[in-house]
Amino acid sequence: MELNLNRPLVFFDIESTGLNIASDSIVELSFVKVFPGGEQRIKTWRMCPWDYEGNRQRAISPSASAVNGITDSEVAACPKFYELADEIISWLEDSDLSGFNSAKFDLPMLAEEIERVRTYKKKEFKLNLHEMKMIDVQTLYHVLEPRNLKAAYRFYCNGAELENAHTAEADTVATYEVLKAQLDKYPDQLKNDVDFLSNFAGRPKAVDYAGRLIYNDKKEPVISFGKHKGKTAREVYLTEPSYFSWIQQGEFTLDTKRQFAILKDAYEAEKKMAKSRPLTDDELMEARKQLSDKFTGKLF
Q1: In sequence order, which residues have a C-beta less than 8 Å from that of residue 151 and are 6 or more positions away?
Q2: If you placed Cys at 60, which of 17, 36, 78, 218 could pair as Cys (CB 3.0 to 4.6 Å)?
Q3: Under the phi-then-psi rule, with left for phi > 0, alpha for psi from -120 to 50, and beta for the rest, what region is 130?
Q4: Cross-strand bridge partners of residue 43
């Protein structure tokens, strides 16, 4: 079954120097861009992983190299992410996203690289990944048939074996083929619709890709870890604003820091607006009560 699309859907996969989003980098990125009507375009970039603070190439961990087969010497002369950023962004514009386990790793890693360009190279992009719908094919797969990509390809694609597994392009193309086959196999459970597929798992929607902030039932950002777990971000900012400064100084992803900073700006703007408007009757009564409690009528 071909996908029912209103705008392009970009399938993507990343190979990286390691699994730590905050301290590792992309070495290979592949896109399969599928347009309404079925046209598809494929683009793969190899890049030199860059440590912006150290101003040097970031080493690929032995464990990552053992999986993706990419060595430091093979990418040393490749362009860096910030040199490819404009082209990568142009492929993503006006599209939605899909990948295999991409919501947990590939998408946060891609967001982190873009944030690094914003931060260290003082470059702004109009693209906002958080506004794009995301279909994680692994999420659909684990709900329907809990296995990995290689098994999914064998299961859904007529017993075929996935060749060149753990190369970005092979994994990306396979993910696209698996999603189409899932739509054919589960017509009563799945809808050929990006909105439906992106929300199929029913997981709490995260504000940041690392999931440090999630939305509650009232669509309010809630902190999901540590001493303030379960509290709204607004509540924490009003009672302990230094917590937001701690986030900026801590070992969190740049995307997490950016989302906390956006919330801080919003809460500051709310406070300024509240100060500039007249007090309500309830607020006046509360203020008078507080003054009355403090003033006893005695000067000494």
Answers
A1: none
A2: 17
A3: alpha
A4: 31
The number of helix segments (H) and strand segments (E) in the chain equals 12, 9
Place of tokens 């009563």: 188
**Tell me: the pLDDT tens digits for 172-231?**
999 999 999 999 999 999 999 999 998 887 666 889 999 999 998 889 999 999 999 999
Per-residue pLDDT, 135:
96
Please give the Cα distance from 244 to 261 (Å, whole number): 8
- pLDDT at position 97 is 97
Please report the beta strands in the chain, taking only residues with DSSP state E, as ranges in sequence order: 9-16, 26-34, 40-46, 50-51, 56-57, 96-99, 134-136, 213-215, 221-223
Model confidence at 30, in pLDDT bands (50, 70, 90)? Answer: very high
Which tokens belong to 33? 């861009």
Greatest CA separation for the chain = 91
CA 88 vs. chain centroid, Å, equals 16
Q: Which of 134, 179, 170, 173 is nearest to 152 (CA)?
A: 179
Sign of CA dihedral 145, 149, 153, 154: negative
Strands of the sheet with 9-16, listed across from one edge: 40-46, 26-34, 9-16, 96-99, 134-136
SS3 state of residue 220: coil
The count of other CB atoms within 10 Å of the CB of residue 298 is: 5
